[in-house]
Write a structure and sequence with these properties.
By secondary structure, the protein is an alpha/beta fold. 31% of the residues lie in helices and 38% in strands. α4 (29-44) crosses α5 (60-67).
Length: 280
């Protein structure tokens, strides 16, 4: 049997690469680089050059950062070798030698790496929520603070909203693949704030990739994170909220614009994703 007929017998789920689907579904590094550039310049009146991407996974963001300017550098830290190796092959190598040589990847726990100091450290897609006690999270924040230059900033994302603590599934059709991305809140325990989440993919031929990624997190609130950042030595913490407009097809629905503005008071929404910026 030829290789192509063997492939044809596989379902779309069996042929799919979970990292490719993850990057398309969950990550938006160009928008994040744009947010880094604008926010750092506005707060520090200079251009950021170096970043550190904690929980970097495939180093998609670190790679995009370095693509943006020939002087930029990035450190990526993740303890999962399979994911880092995927990133080296599919993100760094295609970006070319000049970009790849400016991205340094460490296979380690984010709490163990404290090498060179950077302008911006980020921990995205809520990865730092694996630290489920105040002591663990404060310890991590203290370490990030020490790894920043004197005018450096830490950027985190966080999700929440009135629906967030419910068990739910949200489906989004992918543009570049014949697949639907499914984000599931599997469980939430209001007593300790622990939540289990999972990512699944469903394909146009009916096949599924269940539990492509699974997460065990504490669902932290914005004030808890702000307090812990200040306790760990950051001087100031700003919250950036997404700007919403009326949806094109339904006046009762709002849709996010992808633009974020700094604010300290908002009306709660069913679901939101924000950036927290902590200044050293
Ligand atoms: C939610 S993914 C985030 C991937 C990417 N940064 C993003 O924004 O989509 C979480 C990543 O964190 C890594 N990870 C979890 N705990 C870690 C730790 N303590 N130290 C280093 N990496 C960790 C996992 O291996 C995984 O690749």
């Amino acid at each position: 049997m030829s290789k192509s007929s063997e492939v044809n017998k596989l379902t779309l789920a069996e042929q799919a690469d979970r990292h490719v689907l993850y990057q398309e579904s969950v990550q938006a590094p160009e928008a994040e680089v744009d947010f880094f550039e604008k926010t750092f310049k506005a707060l520090r009146n200079r251009d950021a050059v170096s970043i550190r991407e904690d929980f970097c996974g495939t180093a998609y963001l670190a790679t995009e950062w370095c693509k943006g300017h020939p002087e930029r550098t990035a450190i990526g830290v993740d303890y999962d070798e399979e994911t880092l190796e995927w990133g080296r092959k599919h993100n760094l190598a295609p970006a070319g030698e000049d970009v790849a040589k400016r991205v340094t990847l460490y296979k380690d726990d984010v709490r163990n790496v404290s090498d060179e100091k950077v302008d911006i450290t980020c921990a995205f897609n809520f990865s730092y929520c694996i630290f489920e006690t105040r002591d663990e999270l404060r310890d991590y924040f203290t370490k990030t603070q020490k790894g920043l230059k004197d005018d450096g900033i830490l950027i985190l994302d966080l999700f929440g909203g009135t629906e967030c603590e419910d068990v739910l599934e949200e489906e989004t059709e992918l543009e570049d693949h014949p697949a639907t991305y499914i984000w599931e809140h599997v469980s939430f325990n209001p007593i300790d704030g622990h939540m289990a989440c999972a990512i699944h993919f469903e394909f146009d031929d009916g096949s599924r990739m269940d539990n492509a990624f699974k997460y065990e997190w504490r669902h932290w609130s914005i004030p808890e994170i702000k307090e812990l950042l200040l306790e760990s030595g950051y001087k100031n913490v700003r919250v950036y909220w997404e700007e919403y407009i009326d949806a094109d097809d339904d006046d009762d629905e709002l849709e996010g614009t992808g633009n974020y503005y700094e604010t300290s008071e908002v009306e709660n929404q069913e679901s939101w994703m924000i950036y927290l910026v902590a200044e050293k």
